[in-house]
Each structure stands twice: as C-alpha cells, then as structure tokens.
Design a protein that fits this description.
Length: about 950
C-alpha cells in the first residue's frame, strides 16, 4: 500500500498551524478581520494618553467621549497586572450592525464595533467594550513585557495562543468588567445559566468539553468557564494571582503547557484539577441556592430533545398551535408550528440575526436579518422581513436599513422598530407595512440606547427598554403620547416587555434567577409571574388571554412552557455572586468620574498610512520551502505588503519575493514579484544537459469577490483577470536555445456559488451549487501557442439521514499547445500517485459523507474528540470515452474526526482515506493521511 505523504504536509505558514485567535468580546470573532469599508467613509483621529482613536466622521461626539474615558480608566484596568501606560491604536467601526470588539497583534490594534446590540449589559455599550478590551490590551502588554523588539508581533501572538488558554484571557477580562463597574456579565444569572443548569442536572463535563464545546450538549462556554475559574483563583490566592501567572509564563516561556505548569506552581493544581476543584465548589453553592429558591416545574410543550435545541419566543396561535423560532445543533434557525401533540411543521428557514427575534400580529410575522455588503464587508445592514400566513408568502420589507427588533401590534396593523444611525443615535420608528418606509420617528433627545419595543393589541400603547451608564429602564407611552418611566435605571437585566392584560410583562433577575415579572402602569408595583428553576424568558399572552407562554430554560436549551397568569410576591434574591472577593480587591467604579475635555481631532488619511510593519516571521510554502517574511498591514485593512526570502533546498539557493494587495477599490489588486532560481533538463544531440538560471517573475491580478445573502441562502460571485511576465537569465549556451521571456499570458476566471446555511453538525451544506469557468491564453506572445478552457462544478444534496451530504462534481478541460498538459480541474483521489494513460479531459467525482458519532471524548491532555465522520467515494476520469459509471478510476472509504489537540483552540480535522484503483492500472491501494484545521 502506497502512502501519499502530500496529505500530511501543512501547506500553510508556520504561524497558521498554531493558535492565532484574537481576543473577542463576542463569539462572532474571526482570525484577523480583514474586511474593508467603502471608499465613501471619511476618517478622523484623536491622540490621547498613548491611544490613537481612528473613527468615521459621524462618530466625532462618541470619539470625544471615549478619548476622555479610555485615558481615564486604563490605569485602573491594568493596575492588577502592573500595566499603567500603553501606546495602541483603537479603530471605531460604525458601518456594521453586529456588535463586537477585539484586540489583536499583527498589526497591533483594538477594534470597536460601535453599534450597540439589542441585549447586553446594563451600561453604555462603548463603556462596556472599553473596560473589557482594555483588559486584553493590558494582558498582551504584560505577556510581551512592553518591550519593543524588531517586528515581533506575529511571534508574540502565536506564543500567546500556545501558552495561555483562551478561557483565561476572556475570564480575566469579564472579571475586570464585573469588578471594576457596578454591572458586568458576572452579575447576570442568565449568562452563567447554562453552567448552573448542567451541574444541577448532574452533567459534570470534562475540562475539554467545558472549554471547547460540544456538537451534542449545551455547554457553559469558555467565557463563563474562564470567569468562574478566574474569580475562584482571586478568591483563594488574592488579587495578584493573574499577574503572578502571566509573569511566570513570560519569564519561563519554553515549557510544555506553560499555563498549567505555572498554575500548579501557585495553586498546587494543574489546569484540569483546578477545574474539577472549581466545579465542585460551584455545584455546592448552586445546590444551596436551589434549596432556598421556591421554584416550580413546568410541563414542556415541545418534544424532548436528543441534542441541544432551543425554541425561542413562543406565540400561541388561534388554533392552540404554537409558533416558535427553532435552533438546534443539527438545524439552522427555522420557524416551526407545534401542534397539541408536539408535532412540528416547518414553515421556513431564515438568515443570520443579531439575536433571536420575531413578532406576530393577526396573521403577520416580522423579524430582522443581517445583510452584509457584497464587497465592502465591514458594512452590513439589519433589514426587516415579513411573512403573511394568509397568502403563505414572505418578502423583505426594508433594504439597506439599520433597524432592529421589529414589533407588530396585536391586530397586525402597526409596526415599530429600533433604528440606530451611523452616529449611534438610537430612535424608535414606525414603519409602513406595505412599503417599509418610516412614517414616524419618536424623539430620543437624551440618546438613550433603545431595545426590544412592544405594542399593545391596537397599537395605541408602546413599551421599550432603554440603557445608559446608570442602568436599564422600562418605559411606556400611552395612547395620549405621554411617556412614563415605569422602572427607573437599574442594574437588573430588563428585556423584552410584553403587554399582558392591564400590565406589562418583562424579564429580570429580581430573585437571582431570570424570571418573568409584571409591572402595573398605574402604581408601578412589580409582581412575579413565573418561578422557573433555571430561567424563564420571552413571555407572550395565550390565545384565550388567561395564561402566558414563555421560554423555560432546561439542560438542552430553551424549551416552551405555559402557566396561568397568577401574580405572586417576588422571592428573596439568593443569587450566588462569585465575584465578591474580586470586588473587594478592586473597590472602585471606574466610570464614576470621567472628565469632559475636548480633544483636538484631525483628518486621518488612509493612503498616508498604508505601510505599518509589524512582524518578521518564518514561513513554509506549498512546496515546503522555508522562508522569512517582513510583513505590513495597515490599520483599516486596505493594504497588505510582505517581502522576504525563500530557501530552495534542492538547489541550495535563495529566492527573493515581494507581494502586495490593495483592497480599497472595488476590485482587489494583487502584484507579486519573485526573483527565483530554476533548473531544467534538455536534450542536445545525444546528450542530456542541465540548465540552471535565475528568473524574474511578476504576477498581477485583479479580482472582484462578491458575497451576499437572502434569508438562509448565501451567494457568491468571483470575476478575476490576471497576467504575468517572466524574464529568464540564461547562461550564454542556453540563451541561444530557449525563450528568454514569457510575455503576459492572460487568465480569466468567473465563479458562482450558492449554498444554504449550515448547522453545527452538517458536514457540508444541504444544498449548494458551485460553478467555475477558467480560460488561459497567450495573446501577446506569438512564439507560445495554445490555450486552455476549464469548467469546474460541484453540487451538494441532502443525504439519506440528517446532516448527511452527497456531492457530485463534474469537471472538464480542453487544452492545446504549450498548455496541453496543464491540469486546471479537480482530479480523482490518488491522481498524483497513478500513472496516466491518456490526456486528462474530464472528471466525475461522487462523494457521500456523514457523521456517525459525537463522543465528546477527552483523551487526557492529548486530544478531545468532538465527532467521528465517515465517507465513501467513486471517482471517474475521462468518462464517456474511456470509462463508464460501472468503472471508476478510483473508489474507497475515508474516516475523519474533528479534534482539539493538546488542549489548544484550533479544531483539527484528522483522518485517513483508502483509495482503491481500477484494476486496469495495476496499482496497489493508496493510503492518504488527511490533516486540516479551523478556528
């Protein structure tokens, strides 16, 4: 059996083989966000206390406020790590509609996505971002030692990923946002609810499962895991424990599992054992809390889930059926209707939302979805879609809008939503149900952040949540237009008000568990409507007006429950606050005394700041050549540049290269220059001679990649035009025999793709189509004749069971002249190991892949096995002329697994494939080892 070692080689840079994930406040983080804003965005900057704030002109007021805030709070944020001063740029992004924030190196910067989400903490959004992300700045500075080495950033970033688990970074930052303010996620029962629920249900997950997650169970999340571990460390070992750990890692970097070893030095326990110790304490405290609470059990109105599943925002329809938005590990967001026997009928799937949300009124259904700009993907929109039950049709109501949380009146005649403009001004607006145009804007002169509005049955009353630095409030505007603040600024997690009879139901954690409460608009008295064991959310009035439906959180996710409307006394608050020790250590609210100075701002010209060198890093190319690159990336992701050398070990010579991408224009421009050694053999007379030469190779390419979505469908288009110029420097002998130049061969590419959203368990999209056309010719060099046309396609279909996938790929090429033996299409598995019998003209590739187990198995510190997947394939070459469907060239089986190796964050796709070759080739079976990874 032959072993194809090519599949064991990582054809990527060295730094890409290790954790390079930046630190993100949201799970929407990517590895290095490299998207661009449109050219129309104009930028300004403020320099303050070592920070350079770069922001769009619309954010001048917010930038001035944050310039005062950031310089004031950073010494307090970094104090426990002995970090007081720093120099770092902060980029404010206001064109997007997905709230986020991150800190990165390579290049070093902070990025704030300024549009506030519809559900977050009880404080100002940018303040919330600032304290969290500045803690990451302090962490990075602590690990790097604050020293300026020549271009070290990728090396430092890689080391941080290798040495420190992500849960520690995030847990420490959440601890800071909680202990340094009056709010923070550590004070929110709903945030730690999945962890509490799993432990009280006897699910003591392994350390790896709690950290890395599961394709089967609802796991705590590494933010929550980190916060609870860090606060326990501070409680047991004092306020300097984080500083001690990071100092030890910085001083002794060259160790296996440096964090775990350092933790053992200071606590006596390695990471896994300290995790087990922590969850034992958590279980004990939460069990005591549960004994004190007088919780009720509610019958589930949805069927029992086999894997993590949530049924958000249940609404009872007139026929006692329930409308809900279902999301599971195996299915993307889908509107379903559940009958009294718990049978589910799928209505339709939807696209990505900022948070699960919809509203129903008299046969109409509205919801919001994110739409990303096809080219400039820093820009996104939040649009409103509408479905009519009578006609069973859906349509997009608004286009290129920034509208969130649409709400219908009960009679389906009035629609309101939250609008947030580019200056972060938040307003409630009323929209026309036919055209989507804004008919009315409700004034918000204080510019409170507005969230989750609701209308009563006839649309004469309006309720909503507001947020500022003092906390959250619940408001009511009555039919006369009078506004009343029913609940004044509070740190309670108020959310989703709903008109229930004469009162307004809402969610809060008054008893230390998230439950549903009711406020009387006349006397502002608050009573409890539920007493859930783990958490109750999203109330709605039953069809008969006598009960409420709500989300009752359970071990597998958000279920559906129903209870008669009964007003009861609010229970005593028994919330277990694990950050109490950290709070005593800090003794400060960092937002208490923020100055109000006016800073000088000036224009920021992106083209004047294209070069920003940050790293000198080793590389390895697709041919396993070692190299070294000096890298530059500007702060706005419009210009990438690198220059360096590669070592050709077979020739024992050096190649020099420079590469640049300019991404500000609609087409992306790329140019790459290489001066490289070459060798070749030729026959002269009866002798075989070897030629050695150097050549200058210039490759130029322009491409337009477009990607957009509509509901749960994703589309992509690619147009690309490229050329090159080669100049060969032969020795005098070979110069007489061969062409010295290859002048501007042209390659053209067009691509189209369509796919539906995939769920976590999917091995491929249920439906997808990919078509690529390529053409190569040499119109400017008459000495070199020939051209090549290539057609590639792939079609994905659902398999025979859920999350299975069948793929059929047909590919064709026709070539002539100098390009006659080029291969530009997908080939059969094992192609490179099989002697060809004829010229390649087409291939037909049939693959069937499926998951068959989700073990969530921890093998010590070696690996965490998330899933096991199998596959079979049958591949054909030159079908129709040399073979038919009964005679594949290759066929076989494969097995793969998604695993986390050595407790590191990247998910490694590891497997093996056995390729059997048609007997006409007299070829032994081929074993291919498979290795890939993702973040």
């Amino acid at each position: 059996m032959n072993i194809n070692k090519a599949y064991t080689k990582l054809k990527i840079s060295i730094l890409s083989t290790i954790v390079l994930s930046f630190i993100s406040i949201s799970v929407f983080g990517q590895i290095f966000n490299s998207e661009q804003n449109p050219l129309s965005v104009k930028w300004r900057q403020i320099n303050s206390n070592g920070f350079t704030l770069i922001y769009p002109t619309e954010l001048e007021k917010e930038a001035q406020r944050m310039a005062n805030t950031i310089g004031q709070i950073y010494p307090s944020v970094g104090q426990s790590l002995n970090r007081q001063k720093i120099s770092i740029p902060i980029v404010f992004q206001n064109r997007g509609t997905i709230a986020n924030g991150f800190v990165q190196l390579a290049p070093k910067k902070v990025q704030f996505y300024t549009t506030p989400p519809q559900q977050f903490d009880s404080q100002d959004w940018l303040n919330n971002l600032a304290v969290h992300e500045l803690r990451h700045v302090a962490q990075f500075d602590k690990i790097t030692g604050g020293k300026t080495h020549p271009f070290p950033e990728e090396i430092y970033f890689a080391y941080m990923g290798l040495s420190i688990p992500t849960w520690f970074f995030e847990g420490d930052a959440v601890n800071s946002e909680t202990s340094l303010t009056n709010v923070g996620r550590g004070r929110q029962p709903s945030w730690i609810m999945p962890f509490r629920t799993s432990l009280l249900n006897g699910k003591k997950f392994s350390y790896s499962k709690a950290y890395f997650g599961s394709d089967k169970d609802q796991t705590p999340g590494y933010y929550q895991l980190g916060y609870l571990m860090v606060t326990n460390l501070k409680k047991e070992f004092g306020e300097s424990i984080q500083d001690s750990l990071l100092t030890a890692i910085h001083n002794s970097p060259l160790r296996l599992y440096p964090f775990s070893q350092s933790l053992k030095e200071f606590t006596g326990s390695n990471t896994k054992n300290y995790y087990l110790k922590t969850i034992a304490q958590l279980e004990n405290e939460w069990t005591k809390q549960d004994d004190l609470n007088k919780s009720e059990n509610y019958e589930s109105l949805n069927h029992r889930a086999k894997y993590a599943s949530s049924y958000f925002l249940p609404i009872e329809l007139a026929n006692n059926h329930i409308l809900t938005l279902k999301q599971t590990k195996a299915e993307t967001a889908t509107f379903v209707v559940i009958d009294e026997a718990r049978n589910e009928k799928e209505l339709f799937k939807i696209g990505y939302q900022e948070q699960p949300w919809f509203s129903y009124g008299d046969g109409k259904l509205v919801w919001d979805e994110i739409r990303v700009d096809p080219r400039y993907r820093q820009r996104s929109y939040s649009v409103i879609c509408i479905y009519d039950f009578a006609t069973q049709t859906k349509r997009q109501l608004t286009f290129k809008t920034r509208l969130f949380s649409p709400a219908l009146s009960g009679d389906g005649k009035k629609l309101v939503a939250v609008q947030i403009d580019l200056s972060n001004q938040s307003n409630l607006v009323e929209l026309d149900l036919q055209t989507g145009k804004i008919n009315k804007t409700y004034p918000n002169p204080e510019n409170l952040i507005l969230q989750t509005p609701a209308l009563n049955t006839d649309g004469t009353q309006l309720s909503w949540i507001s947020v500022n630095e003092k906390g959250k409030s619940l408001w009511l505007q009555d039919k006369t237009g009078k506004k009343m603040q029913l609940i004044t600024e509070t740190t309670q997690q108020l959310s989703r008000p709903t008109f229930i009879g004469n009162g307004i139901a809402f969610n809060a954690h008054l008893s230390g568990i998230n439950n549903i409460y009711d406020v009387n608009p006349i006397n502002k008295k608050i009573t409890a409507l539920t007493a859930a064991k783990y958490g109750a959310f999203n109330p709605s009035l039953s069809a008969d007006g006598k009960s409420i439906l709500f989300n009752n959180y359970q071990v597998m996710g958000y279920g559906i429950a129903k209870t008669p409307i009964s007003h009861r006394k609010i229970q005593e608050n028994h919330f277990v606050y694990f950050g109490a020790a950290a709070n005593k250590q800090e003794k400060i609210n960092i937002f208490k005394d923020i100055p109000d100075s006016t800073y000088q701002s000036k224009s920021y010209q992106p083209l004047a700041h294209l070069f920003n060198f940050h790293s000198l890093s080793p590389t390895i190319d697709e041919d396993d050549r070692l190299g070294l690159r000096l890298k530059s990336n500007d702060l706005l992701n419009i210009f990438d540049f690198s220059a360096g050398i590669d070592y050709y070990s077979d020739l024992k010579k050096i190649a020099y290269t420079a590469d640049l991408y300019f991404k500000s224009l609609y087409p992306i421009l790329n140019a790459k220059f290489t001066n490289r050694p070459r060798t070749g053999f030729y026959r002269l007379g009866n002798a075989i001679n070897q030629a050695n030469w150097r050549e200058n190779y210039l490759d130029i390419k322009a491409s337009i990649p477009l990607n957009f979505s509509a509901y749960h469908h994703n589309y992509g288009f690619l147009a690309e035009l490229g050329t090159s110029y080669t100049q060969r420097n032969f020795a005098p002998k070979e110069a007489l025999l061969f062409n010295k130049t290859i002048k501007f061969p042209i390659n053209y590419k067009l691509g189209f793709s369509h796919s539906v959203r995939t769920a976590e368990r999917d091995v491929a999209p249920k439906w997808a189509q990919i078509i690529n056309l390529s053409y190569f010719n040499q119109p400017f060099d008459k000495r070199l004749t020939g051209d090549l046309f290539a057609f590639e396609s792939a079609f994905y279909f659902p398999g025979i069971a859920k999350n299975h996938s069948f793929m059929a790929s047909f590919n064709y090429q026709e070539s002539s002249g100098a390009l006659k033996f080029n291969t530009e299409i997908n080939t059969v598995y094992g192609y490179g190991q099989i002697n060809a019998k004829s010229e390649l003209r087409n291939t037909l590739l049939l693959n069937y892949r499926f998951p068959f187990a989700f073990p969530d198995a921890e093998i010590g510190s070696l690996a965490y096995i998330r899933n096991l997947r199998g596959g079979v394939f049958s591949h054909y070459e030159n079908i129709g002329s040399e073979t038919n469907l009964t005679q594949p060239k290759t066929f076989g089986v494969e097995m793969r697994s998604s695993i986390n190796l050595l407790r590191y964050q990247p998910v490694v796709d590891l497997g093996a494939r056995v390729v059997f070759v048609n007997k006409t080739y007299n070829q032994n079976p081929i074993l291919e080892l498979l290795f890939n990874y993702s973040f």
